[in-house]
Each structure stands twice: as C-alpha cells, then as structure tokens.
C-alpha cells in the first residue's frame, strides 16, 4: 500500500460512521463478536454488539490520543482515587462522540428502542457518593479539555451494594456489575505489576559501609490493569481510567507451593484476590480495616510503578525531569500512602539521597481534602501499619522526624504542644498514623472543595500547617459535567437550550447566562414548565414501577438525593413532613400546594441510626400515602437503590432541591449543582457550595434557612440544649412524641423512637431542632412561590441560567491554574 492509500484508509476508519454504517457494524459484531444472529439475539446481545460497534470509534480515539501524548512527551496529571462512580457509559459515550442520533436511528431501523438497550447496562458503581462521582465528572472534563490525564483506581469485583427494602428496612445485596464481562474495559496483561506487603525490614551495610534498608516482603501480589476509555466531548481525546485487579502472584505461589504445600498455596490465592473484591461502603467514615489499608497501598503502588515505567521509556534513569512530567492528585487521604511508597522507590530502589527524593515527592503530590468530619479523618494504628507495610512506617517516621525538626521546631522552637499537634504520629497508648498530616506535609498544594470548606480546612483543621506554608493552601470549588447532567439526562431541556442560547453550552456552560434574557418571556416560561411537567410524568412512571406509589405530576416534586447521614439531615425533612401531616389532620382544609417528597439514599450497612431513618421515612410514607384524609396533599416516596442511573431520571424532574446539611458539615455537595442546573429551586442552608449557588442565582431564586457556620459555632460554645426547642415548640414536641407511639408501626410502639432519642438524649449533634423552625419557614416560602406559576418558572429558569460556574470544566481549569500547571495536548 502506498502512503497515500494508508492515509485514506486510516481516515475512513477514523471518520464518524453514519447510521447506515453503524447498522452494518452492529450486525457484524452480532455475528463475529457475539456468535449470534439477528433473529435470535437477546436485548443483551444487541446492546453488546452496539457497544462493540461504538468501541471501533472509541479505540481510534484512544490510539491517537496515546500516540500524541507519547510523541509529545507531555506532562500529565495522574488522578489517584479509591472511587469512581461512573454509572453507565453507553449513552454518555454516544453523546460525547456525537453519535447518539445515528445510533438511535440505526437501532430503530434494526427494530430496537435505544432506551431499552440502555437498560441492559449495569451501573459501574465503584464509589460511594459525591467523592466518587466527582472523580468521574473530572475525568470526563479532563478528556473533553484535551488534558493529558490518567485516572488510577481499583477494579472492584463488587461495587457499592444494591439496596432493597424489606418491610421498609434497607437490605443489602452484592453488586456484580461485571458478572458477564463489561464491554467497555480492556485487559492489559502487558502492563501487569507486582507489589509486596507484610514481612520485615533488615538493616544491611554495603561494601562502602553505607547503611541500607532491605524489605523482605511476606507476600507478593499481582496487579492486573483494566483500562476504561474515557471519551471527551466532541474533543479528539480519549483518556484512560486504569483500574487494578489483584491476583495471586504466580511466582510467589509456586514458592509457597514448593515449600509449604497445596493448602497454603490456595489460601494465598484467595487472600490476594480479596484485595479488589469489594468497595468499602462507607462514605465519610474511616473503616480502619487491614484490608482497606492493603487496598490503598495496592493501587498506589501499582499506579506509581506504572507511571515510572512510562517515564523511564522516555527518560531512562534520569529522574531530574520526573516532577516536570508527573503530577499526582490525591483524592482525599485514601491514596496518601503513595507518598512513602514513592520515597521507598526512590531511596531504596533507585539509591537516591533522602533530600533529593523528598524534593521530588514534594513537587509531585497535591492533596484534595473532601471532608472535615472527624470520623472520616483517616488514621491507621502504628501496629497495623508496621505489620502490613513495615518499611513504609520507617519512612513515615523519618519524614516526621525531619518535619518536626526542620519545620515545626524552627517556627516554634521548643514548643512541644505544637509538635504533638502537628506530628504525623499521634501519640497515646495506641499510636496512630495521621493520613491528613502526611498528605499536607508531602504535598505542594492542598485544596478544599468549596470556598467555605477551604476556609475551614485552613482555620479549623490545619491552622498550624497554614502558618508553616501559607501558599500551600487553596480552593477549588467542585463542579459537575454538563454532558451527563444536562445534555444526556435532560434531552428536552437541552434542545430548548440549543434553540435559545446556541449549542456550545455543553463545553462553555457560562453561555447559559443568555437564558436570563428570556426569564420574563411568557412563551419561554411555558415551554420550560411544560418540559419540567413531561420530565415529572416520566419520573412518575418510574416511581410507580419501582414503588407502586401513584403520584400526580402536577404536585411539587421535592427531592432529597444523597447518602444517608445525620449531618445531611434527612430526618429534618421527615420532621417537616410529619408536621404538615399533623396540620392536615388537625385542619382538614389545611391549604398547601400538593407535594411529593422523594428520597433516594443508601445507608452504610453498619450505620444503625441511618438505617432507622430510612425505616422511619418508609413507615411514615406508608401511613400518609394511604390516609384518605390527606387527599393526596402529601406523598412520600423512597426510591430503592439510588444510584447514578436513577439520579439521571430524578434530577430533570425536580422542582425543589433539598440541601439541608448542618452548616459547616457538607464540604461542597454536587447534587445541589445538578439539580439547580436542571431548574430545581434549592431549599438549603449556607453550607458548602450552596453558598456559592446562592451568590450566583440571587436571593430571589433560592430559599435559604438555618444557622450559619459562625452561628453554629456560637450556639455550641454557649451550650446547645435541644430540650429547649422540644419544650418551647409544641409542633416539635408533638411530632417527636408521635414517633414513639405505634401510630406508624401498628402494634410496635417505639420502633421509630431512636430518632427522637438521638435528638434529645443524644444531644442532637447536628442541630436539627435548632434549624427546624427556619426550615419550616423556607418550605412555606416555596409553597407560596409555587402558587404563582409564572413567578416559579422565572425562578427555575434563573437557576439554569446562573449556575454556569459549576461545570467541572471550570473546576478542572482551576486545578490546571492553581495546582497542575498543565497544557492541553491537541490530538488530531
Ligand atoms: C465528600 C463530601 O461529603 C461532599 O460534600 C463533596 O461534594 C464530595 C466531593 O468533594 O466529597 N467527601 C466525602 S468523604 N464524601 C463526599 O461525598
């Protein structure tokens, strides 16, 4: 073949397929990849064949992107995260490739509804909540913005558990998202890594009399990488999410086999493979388990070795360019063990001097803090650390020794209190390694995820670290990808936006501001409300299917979707529902706009009170939904198994967005952004990114309530007693007492009492009762606003128009400017 012929052949392969060509490809894959035939293929087979057809385009992009990055030897960001909450990839990939319409047509001509095929895909739920979904939005933005990036994480066999309700109680079932394989992932056996754990450290001296530490590992584990292509929107880049699966090392097991015997060898197998078996289902709490530490180390070590292998391909043993080429973003402290691991590789393996190695580390790592909750701040017992990673513990001790000596003691000479507070090792009868401290010390930049949160990180969490390194700290407010959270999930609103503000908003979300010009336009208002109505009708069908509850799409759809946690205060929402219900019972003509209160939330399996709250909402809902006296003014719906795919159906249908955490507790929130973007009006506290949303949309278009961060602090300082609120507010007293009766759980009084107890004897740690009245007023305001449909439409429109700031593209640009110093790489 001539060069010209090759070129045109490549061009033909790489060009966008038409619907007709897609049809051919789908059938070809049905035959050649799936070994089935058009007249007997299942929906699953059609879906897989379509994925394979789409992958022909995806892989083109992947190859060209990787070639460009390699040839241009670009600096790249490496996002280290234990969680990626990807959801489904089918429609997302089609939208980002600009192939959705063609695929829809192709499938329809083949006799298939694209929406039905979409339902063949399991959610990729390799995360708990906001932190994992943020990682997924970020890698979408990175690819869209043509930034050289790779996401590293764990290829869990089981993602976040699936939730069902049994008589109102949450039960968990394992999630087997890839039981029959996953069409998007590519196994890369050529890039397998081996990592070590356990064992002991020996001190030896070389011929020059130099002391060296030699780690004799107790176990070797193999990491097998699976690559998920990450398709940028309209951009030419296809980046990679590389997820590691653990396997027993063949080498090591033969050793055990030879010396120990068959039974031990097979036990090794199971233990090695356990590492990537399952995602820990805690959001905002530290599991503190040995397996979790091994998970963290496993993926960090595999990823670092992978990065170094790639670096050496272009730079050999010259480490001087490493910090120029590599930046590693630590998604919370979960991957902080990467810091001592890189030190170990440089000092023990590459024979580098400590100072030189440490200088490299401090230029490579950056750390994002995602929570201030004390129970979420990771710390590992020194004893456990020593057992699992004995050499790393020594390295952490040395990092700490130098830090205390060269930094802390220089700024605060002889101040032992400061040393105790700042030490990476927390002393006590059970000494602990503080991963937050380690992350700050080992990183060149530390950021929080919303303005208020970043301020609190500096003032409350690490004030002394700020004194040591004022320039290290910054803010990057979170964002969400408008491709998934508007374009793909809300096609009706998207086409209206295309018409009104042009078609570039998916990559330039500030364009939505043009919509504000139409906020008073009656036609636009009607269209906007009609779209919301249709989305609500769609959701009503889903609600009926999943819960059997019939809801009226003309009622207010009031939605609270997020993990279940006391600080997020789903029980505040519940108390308000109870108060409304009680008013209706006391006054049959009670005037309120009918409302459907819709919840979606998983509780960590070990979090008892969270599970009690789910149970209470379900029981209260059962009662209210069947009570004729309510005359459908209130419905309560708890959607089972809340996940990305369900969020995509709920968010476009929301009128009201519940963002009601105790001020100072929700680092940012991202559901708040998705809901506002889709025209929901927020009922919220001045917490996390709510504050910035309020700034953007203006006071007329959001219903703010509750104590501020400063007021919360002041109230706590003066001594908060929730009993005062219980005794002073008869409505609070009545609804709390109600929970103790058997009214909602006939024949079983006391079943819902734990909520009352946590709010009274338990001291109400999240100030639910303190905020109750003001919450009620904020809800009353919503009720009033909704009665004026034109006024409501205007507010809803203004929400969509004003939240352009919260695209994850802006967050990523902030990271580029404030942290990564990265340049886009044009691929074609
Ligand atoms: C979280 C925060 O709780 C949440 O507010 C934030 O939006 C998210 C992403 O930054 O991170 N931190 C943890 S832990 N889980 C979260 O969802």
From TrEMBL:
Q: Which InterPro entries match?
A: Glycg_phsphrylas (IPR011833), Glyco_trans_35 (IPR000811), Pyridoxal_P_attach_site (IPR035090)
Q: Tell me which cofactor or cofactors this protein depends on.
A: pyridoxal 5'-phosphate
Q: What class of enzyme is it?
A: transferase
Its EC number is 2.4.1.1
- Tell me what reaction this enzyme catalyses: [(1->4)-alpha-D-glucosyl](n) + phosphate = [(1->4)-alpha-D-glucosyl](n-1) + alpha-D-glucose 1-phosphate
- Write the record's keywords in alphabetical order, separated by commas: Carbohydrate metabolism, Glycosyltransferase, Pyridoxal phosphate, Transferase
Any Pfam family: Phosphorylase
A molecular function GO annotation: 1,4-alpha-oligoglucan phosphorylase activity
Q: Which residues form a coiled coil?
A: none
NCBIfam families, A to Z: P_ylase
Similarity comment text for this entry: Belongs to the glycogen phosphorylase family.
Q: Report the function annotation for this chain.
A: Allosteric enzyme that catalyzes the rate-limiting step in glycogen catabolism, the phosphorolytic cleavage of glycogen to produce glucose-1-phosphate, and plays a central role in maintaining cellular and organismal glucose homeostasis.
Q: What protein name is recorded for this chain?
A: Alpha-1,4 glucan phosphorylase
Q: Which organism is it from?
A: Alkalimonas collagenimarina
């Amino acid at each position: 073949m001539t060069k010209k012929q090759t070129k045109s052949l490549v061009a033909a392969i790489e060009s966008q397929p038409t619907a007709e060509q897609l049809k051919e490809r789908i059938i070809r894959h049905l035959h050649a990849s799936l070994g089935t035939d058009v007249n007997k293929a299942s929906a699953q087979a059609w879906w897989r064949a379509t994925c394979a057809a789409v992958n022909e385009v995806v892989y083109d992009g992947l190859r060209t992107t990787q070639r460009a990055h390699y040839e241009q030897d670009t600096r790249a960001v490496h996002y280290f995260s234990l969680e990626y909450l990807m959801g489904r990839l089918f429609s997302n990939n089609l939208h980002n490739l600009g192939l959705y319409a063609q695929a829809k047509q192709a499938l329809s001509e083949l006799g298939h509804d694209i929406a039905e095929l979409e339902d063949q895909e399991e959610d990729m739920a390799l995360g708990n909540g906001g932190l994992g979904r943020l990682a997924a939005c970020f890698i979408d933005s990175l690819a869209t913005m043509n930034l050289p990036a790779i996401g590293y994480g764990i290829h869990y066999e089981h993602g976040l558990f699936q939730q069902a309700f049994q008589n109102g109680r949450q039960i968990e079932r394992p999630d087997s998202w890839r039981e029959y394989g996953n069409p998007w992932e590519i196994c890369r056996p050529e890039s397998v890594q081996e990592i070590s754990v356990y064992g002991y450290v020996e001190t030896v001296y070389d011929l020059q009399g130099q002391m060296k530490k030699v780690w004799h590992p107790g176990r070797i584990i193999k990491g097998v990488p699976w690559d998920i292509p990450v398709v940028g929107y309209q951009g030419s880049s296809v980046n990679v999410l590389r997820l590691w699966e653990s396997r027993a090392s063949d080498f090591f097991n033969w050793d055990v086999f030879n010396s120990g015997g068959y039974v031990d060898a097979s036990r090794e197998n199971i233990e090695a493979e356990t590492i990537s078996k399952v995602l820990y289902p805690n959001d905002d709490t530290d599991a503190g388990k040995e397996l979790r530490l091994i998970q963290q180390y496993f993926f960090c070590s595999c990823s670092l070795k992978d990065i170094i292998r790639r670096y050496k391909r272009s730079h050999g043993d010259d480490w001087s360019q490493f910090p120029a080429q590599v930046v590693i973003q630590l998604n919370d402290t979960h991957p902080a063990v990467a810091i001592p691991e890189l030190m170990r590789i440089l000092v023990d393996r590459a024979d580098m001097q400590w100072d030189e190695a440490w200088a490299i580390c401090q230029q490579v790592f950056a750390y994002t803090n995602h929570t201030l909750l004390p129970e979420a701040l990771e710390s590992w017992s020194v004893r456990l650390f020593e057992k699992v990673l004995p050499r790393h513990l020594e390295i952490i001790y040395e990092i700490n020794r130098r830090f205390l000596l060269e930094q802390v003691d220089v700024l605060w000479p002889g101040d032992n209190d400061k040393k105790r507070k700042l030490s990476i090792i927390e002393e006590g009868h059970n000494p602990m390694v503080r991963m937050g401290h380690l992350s700050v010390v080992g990183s060149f930049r530390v950021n929080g995820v919303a303005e208020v949160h970043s301020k609190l990180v500096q003032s409350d969490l690490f004030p002394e670290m700020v004194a040591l390194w004022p320039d290290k700290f910054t803010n990057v407010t979170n964002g969400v990808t408008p491709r998934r959270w508007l374009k793909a999930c809300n096609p009706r609103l998207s086409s209206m936006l295309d018409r009104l503000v042009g078609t570039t908003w998916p990559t330039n979300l500030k364009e939505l501001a043009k919509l504000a010009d139409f906020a008073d336009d009656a036609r636009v208002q009607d269209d906007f409300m009609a779209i919301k109505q249709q989305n609500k009708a769609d959701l009503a069908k889903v609600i009926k299917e999943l819960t059997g509850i019939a809801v009226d799409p003309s009622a207010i759809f009031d939605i609270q979707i997020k993990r279940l946690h006391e600080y997020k205060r789903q029980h505040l929402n519940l108390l308000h529902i109870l108060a409304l219900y009680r008013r209706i019972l006391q006054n049959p003509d009670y005037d309120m706009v009918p409302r459907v209160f819709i919840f979606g939330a998983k509780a960590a399996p070990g979090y008892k009170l969270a599970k009690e709250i789910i149970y209470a909402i379900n029981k209260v809902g059962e009662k209210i939904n069947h009570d004729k006296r309510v005359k459908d003014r209130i419905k309560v719906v708890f959607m089972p198994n809340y996940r990305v795919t369900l969020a995509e159906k709920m968010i476009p249908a929301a009128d009201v967005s519940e963002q009601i955490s105790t001020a100072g507790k929700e680092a940012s929130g991202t559901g708040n952004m998705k809901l506002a973007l889709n025209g929901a009006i927020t009922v919220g506290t001045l917490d996390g990114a709510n504050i910035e949303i309020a700034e953007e949309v203006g006071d007329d278009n959001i219903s703010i309530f509750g104590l501020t961060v400063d007021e919360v602090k002041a109230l706590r300082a003066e001594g908060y007693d929730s009993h005062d609120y219980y005794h002073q507010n008869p409505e609070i007293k009545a609804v709390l007492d109600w929970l103790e009766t058997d009214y909602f759980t006939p024949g079983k009084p006391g079943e819902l009492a734990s909520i009352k107890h946590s709010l009274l004897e338990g001291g109400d740690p999240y100030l639910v009762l303190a905020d109750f009245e003001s919450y009620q007023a904020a809800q009353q305001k919503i009720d009033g606003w909704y009665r004026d449909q034109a006024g409501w439409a205007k507010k809803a429109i203004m929400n969509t128009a004003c939240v352009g700031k919260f695209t994850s593209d802006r967050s990523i640009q902030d990271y580029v400017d404030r942290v990564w110093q990265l340049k886009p790489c044009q691929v074609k």
